[in-house]
Amino acid sequence: MAKHIGIVACSAEGAALCYRTICSEGAALFGAHGHPEVTMHTPPFGRYVEVLDKEDWPSVGELMLTSARILERAGADFLICPDNTVHQALPLIEAASPLPWLNIAEAVSANASERGVRRIGLTGTKWLVESDVYPGPLKRRGIDHVLPAPDERQEMNRIIMDELVNAQFNPSAVSFFQDVVARMKSEGCDAVVLGCTEIPLIINDENAALPTLDSTRLLARAALSKAAS
User: Fold this and answer.
1) Exposure letters 117-129 (e unless 16+ CB within 10 A, then b)
2) What is the DSSP code string of the chain?
3) What is the distance of C-alpha 213 from the center of its chain?
4) Same-fold call for 5-103+218-228 versus 104-214
5) Residue 216: pLDDT band by 50, 70, 90 thresholds?
6) Rounded to 10 degrees, what is the CA torsion of 138, 139, 145, 151?
7) pLDDT tier at 100 (50, 70, 90 boundaries)?
8) pTM to 2 decimals?
9) How confident is the model at residue 51 (pLDDT cuts 50, 70, 90)?
10) What is the pLDDT of residue 1?
11) Counts for the chain of helices (H) and strands (E), in that order
């Protein structure tokens, strides 16, 4: 029997992409039309935004724990969260969690190591790129990283929070992210982490100057692998 995946969802677009990936790619492991059982819980996204704006990480963690407890009651065997930013609260709650978690940064960093990446660019919200979510997992694998410049972080955050989470995919946003990735390439990066679960909706290997590490789909694939084990 495949393990039951619980999705602790934050923003709808990233969570939907993660869910679709699990279901569409599950057939490769489970046969035609096959995938593990999946249950998702999503509180109103505004609750997350309110505490993120205050950088109140304990409260972020409490929202995650609420979802975790609901998913445990629904029968989930383990948890994933298709939101890079709120992983900053994960160390605060893992001991109290009723179920184990897969860490999105660990999944991405492991894939980067397997691909031989040595220096990586990091994109995402201002909270994510200024956090410890990725530096630790990358450093443990000997991977250096480059952050967006301060002005890039602000515009990246605006695009994510005002546009992408609301399913607004504008050409100007694509161009902005392309410019950031091109700058990272000029600084010696050999790949870029799409470290917000909505960024893969506008940036990919076809339109970026660097190979991309799609955090949303990599987390979904890690969940499929665990579910099959």
Assistant:
1) beebbbbbbbbbb
2) -PPPEEEE--SHHHHHHHHHHHHHHTHHHH-TT----EEEE---HHHHHHHHHTT-HHHHHHHHHHHHHHHHHTT-SEEE-S-SGGGGGHHHHGGG-SS-B--HHHHHHHHHHHTT--EEEEES-HHHHTSSTTHHHHHHTT-EEEPPPHHHHHHHHHIIIIIGGGT---HHHHHHHHHHHHHHHHTT-SEEEE-STTGGGT--TTTSSS-EEEHHHHHHHHHHHHHH-
3) 10
4) yes
5) very high
6) 90
7) very high
8) 0.96
9) very high
10) 83
11) 11, 7
Q: Where are the domains of the chain?
A: 5-103+218-228, 104-214
pLDDT by residue (tens digit) across 117-163?
A: 999 999 999 999 999 999 999 999 999 999 999 999 999 999 999 99
**pLDDT tens track for 4-48:** 999 999 999 999 999 999 999 999 999 999 999 999 999 999 999
Helix (H) or strand (E) holding 40: strand 38-41
Which numeric CATH code is attached to 5-103+218-228? 3.40.50.1860
Largest CA distance in the chain: 49
CATH topology of domain 104-214: Rossmann fold (3.40.50)
Distance CA 211, CA 207 (A): 10
